[in-house]
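Supplementary Methods. Inverse-folding protocol.

Structures were first reduced to a discrete structure-token string of length 261. This string, shown here, constituted the complete conditioning input.
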């Protein structure tokens, strides 16, 4: 589903160039739940933007569903995002004057889906996240957890193959954060959706399939988790060796968790 090889991105600033992503590589399978973790400013969100095609890279390769993003025009990338990707943000980005169902259907209306079909799909998406009873409520009438469920429904409404989530629990209390994480895991399992999330919360990461740790723009470690039976492993970049070990049922050494949160 996702493969990045030696991705590098530099930003120009008044104080010179900043290496935001430094020779990063990793891969994730179809329907895998991946978590990018690391300290603030380590390049997690920038890498997420590169993966979704929002930021152009300076070097390396990114393939999503076997499609190289670099080979697409800006228009083709925009169309691909609209058809195959969903986005969840920390601060919801909901239109305050629109109801839940109107916020969810908005991307479809922009894509010129017929209004009746857009409404049907929006209602179905709200049902998937358990918010059908709040379809007519404005964002200010919802709790933080409910608002984030609306953003997840909006991310699902175009039936994407992959959902990118940037700090989806960062503005929530611990109870709502756990509920949102469990919801994303359920959608991942039941619908076969791939998720890639950025988070500071290692507790959220522990509910995913793969933790990708970043530091100073680099992917410094990957930890493969098997949430169902508690087995775990990690790799400092050799994904194939770790995957082979996991398939063989061998427990890999526990990683050093210092600085992981």
């Amino acid at each position: 589903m996702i493969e990045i090889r030696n991705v590098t991105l530099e930003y120009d600033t008044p104080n010179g160039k900043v290496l935001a992503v430094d020779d990063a590589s990793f891969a994730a399978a179809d329907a895998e739940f991946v978590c990018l973790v690391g300290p603030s400013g380590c390049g997690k969100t920038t890498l997420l933007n590169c993966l979704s095609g929002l930021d152009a890279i300076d070097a390396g390769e990114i393939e999503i569903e076997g499609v190289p993003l670099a080979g697409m025009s800006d228009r083709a990338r925009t169309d691909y995002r609209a058809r195959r990707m969903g986005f969840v943000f920390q601060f919801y980005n909901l239109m305050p004057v629109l109801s839940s169902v109107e916020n969810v259907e908005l991307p479809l209306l922009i894509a010129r889906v017929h209004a009746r079909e857009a409404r049907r799909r929006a209602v179905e998406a709200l049902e998937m996240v358990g918010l059908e009873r709040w379809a007519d409520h404005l964002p200010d009438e919802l709790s933080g957890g409910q608002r984030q469920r609306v953003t997840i429904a909006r991310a699902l409404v175009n039936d994407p193959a992959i959902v990118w989530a940037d700090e989806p629990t960062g503005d929530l209390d611990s109870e709502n954060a756990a509920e949102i994480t469990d919801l994303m895991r359920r959608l991942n399992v039941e619908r076969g959706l791939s998720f890639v999330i950025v988070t500071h919360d290692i507790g959220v990461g522990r509910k995913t399939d793969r933790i990708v740790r970043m530091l100073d723009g680099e992917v410094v470690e990957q930890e493969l988790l098997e949430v169902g039976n508690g087995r775990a492993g990690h790799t400092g970049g050799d994904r194939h060796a770790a995957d082979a070990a996991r398939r063989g049922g061998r427990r890999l050494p526990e990683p050093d968790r210092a600085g992981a949160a």
